[in-house]
Amino acid sequence: LNHIIMKNYFYYSVKFLFFLISILIISCGSPKKEIRDSYEEDIIGFWERKGTIEVVNGIPVDTLIWTDSDDTKKTRQVKFFGEGNRIFWISNISDTINNPWPGGNGGYGKYKIHARDSLTEYLTNGTGWFGAYLKNRKDSLNVKNESFGFDTYLSKNSYSQFMGDNAMDQDSKNQNTGFSEYYVKFPPSAPKTKLDGVWKRVYEISYVNGIAVDTTSVPSDVVLDIKTMYRGRFIYQVDQTGLAERGLALHGGFGGYGQFEYDGKGNLVEYDEFGSGNFPGSLERGPKTDGGYKKVTFYSDDLFLQVDKDTLNQGGMGFGSAETSNKTFRGLVYERVK
């Protein structure tokens, strides 16, 4: 009997020991997963650049805030990191002396965040000067994207990035000096809606007097119209480098940043704040002023039609006339990018 009791005691002791070991493994493993996932979550959202951090021998020595200087107080740059590792950025910094477009520049592609202190951008398309640069690099090197590696600092509400080994400023690298872009996270300006996500224009529909008269596909290798909408903010980039030669205004495309309101019933208002490429710099506005009104119709969760509303009864593309009373509008069909 004692032999049987001891055998059972040993059997259940071993089972209990394995149970304790399993609990310890799970409890020790969970924080690691939480840490790994937290920076992937923290990076998601819209970020506004506030200035520049001067770095010497890897040590931050000074922070230059844009609004503190008359030269940069009107400068805007916004970056978006989204689910699916999509990245958008746009700036109103323009170079009208060397380029034919009045707006700033921007980029689009994918990113990989390796840790809180390391991130790589793989950019494929853009607008303004940067769009022209990417097009030239892809064609000359026969590559699909241009990669940019950054040393980063990421917290929940602030982010900075310092270009690493592929820095274009070799003098700064040799002198162990450089500048880090400093960003602060935008708070959400609206709740999540059905429009939240990344979208690509796939069709364009022409309307005359409210009747669809023509539908045209939009090949991405000629024109890439890509748009992200997230928690009440948006960025769009229209890369037209495949449509026009370098040096022409059309080559710079156009893009914009702003905020939007959507009531869930098909009524969308977009408030552009600043733009890139051929977006006129004179149209820069404050937050939520002079909105553009759209009618949205969802074909499915991943496909919708957007048409400008004729709030002034003039015809969306300026083709209406007193003689013909024809009003021509453009409908844009967007497909979700997954």
List SSEs in N-to-C order. HEEEEEEHEEHEEEEEEEEEE
Residue share in helix: 10-25%
**What's the number of helices?**
3
- In angstroms, what is the radius of gyration? 26 Å
Strand coverage percent: over 45%
Unreliable runs: 1-27, 166-170, 314-324
Structural class by sheet pairing and helices:
alpha+beta
- Overall residue-averaged pLDDT value: 84
Please give the largest β-sheet: 8 strands, antiparallel, barrel
What does this structure look like?
The strands form two sheets. The protein has an eight-stranded antiparallel beta barrel with strand order 1-3-4-5-6-7-8-9. It has an eight-stranded antiparallel beta barrel with strand order 10-12-13-14-15-16-17-18. A hairpin with a 2-residue loop joins strand 16 and strand 17. It contains three helices and 18 strands. With 338 residues, the protein is of the alpha+beta class. The chain has helices spanning 2-42, 128-141, 170-174, and strands spanning 45-56, 59-65, 77-82, 86-91, 105-115, 118-127, 146-154, 158-163, 177-185, 197-208, 211-217, 224-230, 233-239, 254-262, 267-277, 292-300, 303-308, 328-336.
